[in-house]
Amino acid sequence: MKFRRIEANDINQADQLFQECLKDLLKREGFDDPSLWAEEVARLNQAVQKSFVDPLNHFYVAEKEKKLLGTIALQTPGKMLNAMVKVEPGELEVACVYVHPEHQRSGVGDFLFQQACRELKAIGKQKFYLDAGFTSSQQYWLAKLGEPFRLLEDYWVPGKPHMVWIKKVE
Questions:
Q1: Among 39, 117, 123, 170, which residue's CB has the most CB atoms within a 10 Å radius?
Q2: Which residues neighbour 43 within 8 Å (Cβ) at sequence distance 6 or greater?
Q3: What pLDDT score does 31 carry?
Q4: 132 vs 135: CA distance, rounded Å
């Protein structure tokens, strides 16, 4: 498996990956609202485009045999995260972590996260922010990172919290 920055010729394949991941995720999470799917795909595609022009935003892919298996980004924290916690200037958020449904639970997510942490170290970052709103994402990050720094109860709807981690780069 190869870890690399996203390239312009990856855009169509990345968009397809986002669509398949989100259709699967929203189905598993019990969401029926198609506008949520479309908004999230558009947000991810914007993050990809921003990485081409903003040197503070890095978008990466995991690739095997010219097929994109997953994505991860290191980016300036967005409005949503800034509204939840006090973000220190210059720090980055680990975001846009998506693994194609056919490759989930095969180590791709761990590979992406390990490589992203190496990148954070390489650019001199001591910590990172990460947030998760989907239950399955929260379960993954709880197992990997432990308890969140901040738990926002009933954030989305009653019984659906949002979690934020602030972690040292290891």
A1: 117
A2: none
A3: 76
A4: 8
CA–CA separation, 124 vs 40, rounded Å? Answer: 30
Euclidean distance between CA atoms 82 and 88, whole angstroms? 9
Q: Which residues of the chain have pLDDT under 70?
A: none
> Whole-model pTM?
0.94
Domains of the chain: 2-168 (3.40.630.30)
